[in-house]
Amino acid sequence: MERQRRKADIEKGLKFIQSTLPLKQEEYEAFLLKLVQNLFAEGNDLFREKDPKQALVQYMEALNVADYAASDQVSLPRELLCKLRVNRAACYFTMGMYEKALEDSEKALSLDGENIRALFRKARALNELGHHKEAYECSSRCSLALPHDESVTQLGQELAQKLGLRVRKAYKRPQELETFSLLSNGTAASMADQGTSNGLGSIDDIETDCYVDLRGSPAPLPSPPTMPLSLLGH
């Protein structure tokens, strides 16, 4: 039911922005933000349903609406735009469009240079394109940030072998030392948990959590504005 409502809101929203009907600026900004968020969420659902082509359509539409908003003096959150690029890169990569995946990954990093998923997507795309040295540099940065992530480890080892580097296993601290360290100062975190302690989950997954307010406020977003019956097809 919720997804059907979201699809209906997307359809109505896309019809509305193709019109020239006036709207108060604050309502207009919130409306555009919610439309992009809905497209983002729909793309995520489609990607998880193993339909990267249709997910790509949603992410592309969201980025097009974001460009439209910018042309009309409405700036959407950089975090949201970055996540859209990261997820679209995942679609391109899954579809074997590695140049496009690399392009979106680099644009995501230009929005957020610390986005590990964007860096990982870049490394994978570079690897597929044969740029193994540059891919290894990106992969190494991912390894330092997420030393226990299986996907990162596998990519790093693959690239090391291609470059003729010595592959070594990672050091793992004994559980007793972790427990003792935690009891001693109350600040140590288990190294084994670092892959998920930053909220990423698996680095190979898509970005989620797009519901941020334009002004950073946690207040709920308004519903799309009421539209003329002629636009709704009634």
TrEMBL record:
- This chain's protein is named Zinc finger CCCH-type containing 7B
Q: Which Pfam families does its entry note?
A: TPR_8
Q: Where are the TPR repeats?
A: 82-115
- Gene3D superfamilies hit by this protein: Tetratricopeptide repeat domain
Q: Which residues form the signal peptide?
A: none
Q: Where in the cell is it found?
A: Nucleus
One GO biological process term is: post-transcriptional regulation of gene expression
Give GO cellular component annotations, separated by semicolons.
Answer: nucleus
Task: Classify the main location.
Answer: nucleus
A single GO molecular function, which one? zinc ion binding
- This protein's record includes keyword NADP: no
Which SUPFAM superfamilies does the record associate with it?
Answer: TPR-like
Organism of this sequence: Rousettus aegyptiacus (Egyptian fruit bat)
Question: Does Phosphoprotein count among this protein's keywords?
Answer: yes
Note the InterPro entries from the entry.
TPR-like_helical_dom_sf (IPR011990), TPR_rpt (IPR019734), ZC3H7A/B (IPR039691)
* Keyword field: Metal-binding, Nucleus, Phosphoprotein, Repeat, TPR repeat, Zinc, Zinc-finger
